[in-house]
Amino acid sequence: MKNYDTLSEAINDLQAKEYPYDFNLRPECLECASLEIEIHPEDFKVDKTYRFEGMSSTDDNSILYAISSKNGIKGLLVDAYGVYAENISEAMRKKLR
């Protein structure tokens, strides 16, 4: 697994290679707005996870997930972690652990 210095570097590289779509985190699923679909926890897997720590504040902590779905759609999800992570279902929490 390649290491990246910044979140933007990781996103640019992974999108250019094999993860072209952007996913948004919803309480019960992932949403891909450009394809107008929802992907539920049982329908995707996390291929790679990258953590990025803010230099001056924990508010800047983020995690990047490279995700592939059962139907072949690959994309990226960016989320905060720690105390600032969004409220999600237990199934989503287990999947993104």
Task: List the SSEs and their pairings.
Layout: H1 7-17, E1 21-25, E2 30-32, E3 37-39, E4 44-52, E5 62-69, E6 74-80, H2 90-95
Parallel strand pairs: 1-6
Antiparallel strand pairs: 1-2, 2-3, 4-5, 5-6
Written account of the structure:
- By secondary structure, this protein is α+β, with helices and mostly antiparallel strands.
- It has one domain.
- It has helices spanning 7-17, 90-95; strands spanning 21-25, 30-32, 37-39, 44-52, 62-69, 74-80.
- Strands 3-2-1-6-5-4 form a six-stranded mixed β-sheet, with helices on one face.
- β2 (30-32) and β3 form a beta hairpin.
- The mean pLDDT is 88.
Keywords:
single chain; 97 residues; alpha+beta; six-stranded mixed β-sheet; 2 helices; 18% helix; 36% strand
**Rg result:** 13 Å
Strand order of the largest sheet: 3-2-1-6-5-4
The low-confidence runs, each spanning 5 or more residues with pLDDT under 50, are none
Percent of residues in β-strands: 35-45%
Q: Count the strands?
A: 6
Tell me the helix content. 10-25%
Q: Output the helix-strand order.
A: HEEEEEEH
What is the approximate shape? globular
Largest sheet: 6 strands, mixed
Domain count, please report it.
1
Distance between the termini: 18 Å
Count of helical regions: 2
Q: Strand pairing plus helix content: what structural class?
A: alpha+beta
